[in-house]
Amino acid sequence: DSLRAQDPGPRPLELKEVFKLFQIQFNKSYSNPAEHARRLDIFVHNLAMAQRLQEEDLGTAEFGVTPFSDLTEEEFGQLYGNWRAAKKDLRVGRKVRFEKQEL
Amino acid sequence: IPPSCDWRKAPNIISPVKYQGKCNCCWAIAAAGNIEALWNIRFKQSVEVSVQELLDCGRCGDGCLGGYVWDAFITVLNYSGLASEKDYRFRGRANIHRCLAPFYKKVAWIQDYVMLPRNEHTMARYVATQGPITVLINQMLLQHYRQGIIRATPSTCDPWLVNHYVLLVGFGKEEEKKGSEKDLSQSNHLPRHSTPYWILKNSWGAHWGEQGYFRLHQGSNTCGITRSPLTACIGDPAEKQQVSCP
User: Fold this and answer.
1) Could you tell me if B18 lies within 8 Å of chain A, comparing CB atoms?
2) How confident is the model over B147-159, as pLDDT tens digits?
3) ipTM computed for the complex
4) pLDDT at site B236
5) What is the pLDDT of residues B85-94, one digit of tens each?
6) Which one from B25, B26, B57, B157 is the annotated catalytic residue?
7) Percent of the residues in chain A that have a pLDDT greater than 70, as a whole number
8) Is the separation of the CB atoms in B180 and B82 below 8 Å?
9) Contact A66 B24 (CB under 8 A)
10) C-alpha distances in Å from residue B72, one per residue of A80, B52, B84, B182
11) Residue of A84, A88, A94, A96 to mutate for B, most B C-beta atoms under 10 A
12) Residues B63-111: pLDDT tens digits?
């Protein structure tokens, strides 16, 4: 009873509210409710991912909500990844490893 | 090598952070940033060069589908320089059949370009004594990055899967702030740890990260930073002069 009587303090924001704030901050809108729901799912997944990265990071980095929080990893890679460079570099990497094996 | 170096502190060396939008032209923006910085250091004259010229006039087709910094440098050599950003403005899409390079006055040019040794110590020395360089990294963690120093392991950020060009503008050390209360209470008796870091200029606008910049741990090849350090050569090599980084 005494615990119940205590003021619980400010209520943590629900994920939907956090997503709404994200949309306002980065001026994001979606074409239909289905797309909105899909982006919300991705956003929630990305928040969990950011939390995991935060725990794994050995430096002082802060991970969290960014302008790319409503994109899947694949979409982010397609939109911002320089795959021409990545493919070439992977080819070089494979060649080097192959040559090492040969030796 | 000085303990820290930040070319942003020198006036008119580093141009404002650019926004690549939906065009995958990090390679062209990094190359342009490298040329601008070296030109400004060498000639004490502030220029901002055209990224659009690199996209329209490159030999590898649509520059918005990705590219290589060395191809940007080859384009600069082929056209004997670059126009100014003011004259040949960035449009966010490549126009490969309409290279306008011959119609504009060149404001900066290069003599050559070099691949630097894949070694963080050598990279730091070059940045401190010559100026900013381009590097290729794995951008995976940047999707969720807000601020601070990223220190990853090969399992959290694969150093072989490098897919994003950025400009390395300096380095420094940060006193560790993380730690439990116990650690803090003992901190007076223990040697203080500091985290060495690289300062990198991204091309996702000034509202991303630390005003458009981010920091990676120095000394652990975080996210493959040593995979492809490349820089243009500006000025007469016979008159090579060392400069001091602020």
Assistant:
1) no
2) 999 999 999 999 9
3) 0.87
4) 78
5) 999 999 999 9
6) B26
7) 71
8) no
9) no
10) 18, 11, 15, 52
11) A84
12) 999 999 999 999 999 999 999 999 999 999 998 888 999 999 999 999 9
Token pair, residue B123, equals: 């990279």
Q: Pick the closest to residue B170 from B194, B148, B201 (CA basis).
A: B201
Q: Which two tokens stand for residue B145?
A: 């990055």
Task: Among A63, A79, A93, select the one facing B145 at the smallest CB separation.
Answer: A63
CA distance from start to end of chain B:
12
d(CA B105, CA B82): 8
CA atoms of B48 and B214, how far apart (whole Å): 22
Which residues 6+ apart lie within 8 Å of A90 measured at CB?
B160, B161
Q: Which residues of A touch B176 (CB under 8 A)?
A: 60
**Quick one: pLDDT at residue B234?**
94
Which among A66, A88, A89 has CB closest to B144? A66
Taking contacts as CB-CB distances below 8 angstroms, the residues of chain B near A64 are 144, 146
**pLDDT band at residue A95 under the 50/70/90 scheme:** very low
**Spatial separation of the C-alpha atoms in residues B234 and B240, rounded to whole Å:** 9
- The first and second tokens of residue B155, run together, are 């399992």
- Give Cβ neighbours of residue A15 (< 8 Å, ≥ 6 apart): A40, A43, A44, A47
> Is the model's pLDDT at B173 over the cut of 80?
yes
- Nearest-CA residue of chain B relative to A66? B144
Using a CB-CB distance cutoff of 8 angstroms, which residues of chain A are in contact with residue B24?
Answer: 79-83
From the CB of residue A42, how many other CB atoms can be counted at a distance below 10 Å?
A: 17
Mapped onto helix, strand or coil, the DSSP state of residue B11 is coil
Task: Tell me the HSE value of B77 on the side-chain side, using a 13 A CA sphere.
Answer: 13
Task: With CB atoms and an 8 Å threshold, state whether A82 touches B27.
Answer: yes
Taking the CA of residue B40 and the nearest CA in chain A, the distance in Å comes to 28
